Amino acid sequence: MRQSQTVNIADAVAKNDGQPLRVATVQRDGKWYVSFFYSIADNATHKAGLPNPTAADAIAPQGSGSPEEAVNTLIDAASKGDLKTVI
């Protein structure tokens, strides 16, 4: 079910102690889109006082031989608290 919400940016900034809103974007097929999850991660990083990630921080994709193997690997890593593999 699709939902939409209108936000008054001035009110949101006022609630954020006058700090600008941080919104992360991604480029897909030549077009730019707001990324909800990247925005959450960026705001958490910024609020924690951590530096922005760089290309050196990227985690290389591993891939799996089948969808079932991918899900099993995810569940196994999550149950062990292995966040790097989960990501």
Overview of this structure, please?
With 87 residues, this protein is mainly alpha-helical. It has helices at 9-15, 36-47, 67-80, 83-86; strands spanning 25-28, 31-34. It has a two-stranded antiparallel sheet. It starts with 8 loop residues before the first helix and ends with a helix. The model has no long low-confidence stretch (mean pLDDT 89).
Number of helices: 4
- Give the overall silhouette: extended
- Unreliable spans are none
The succession of helices and strands, N to C, reads HEEHHH
Number of E-state strands: 2
Please indicate the percent range of residues in DSSP E strands (runs of 2 or more). 5-15%
Ends apart, CA distance between termini: 27 Å
Radius of gyration: 17 Å
Instruction: State the share of residues found in helices, binned by percent.
Output: 40-55%
Rounded mean pLDDT is 89
- In quaternary terms, these chains amount to single chain
Overall structural class, as computed from helix and strand content, comes to mainly alpha
Largest sheet: 2 strands, antiparallel
Question: Within the largest sheet, what's the order of strands?
Answer: 1-2
What are the key terms here?
87 residues; mainly alpha
Helices and strands, with pairings:
Layout lengths: L8 H7 L9 E4 L2 E4 L1 H12 L19 H14 L2 H4 L1
Summarize the structure.
43% of the residues lie in helices and 9% in strands. With 87 residues, it is mainly α. The protein is extended, with a radius of gyration of 17 Å.
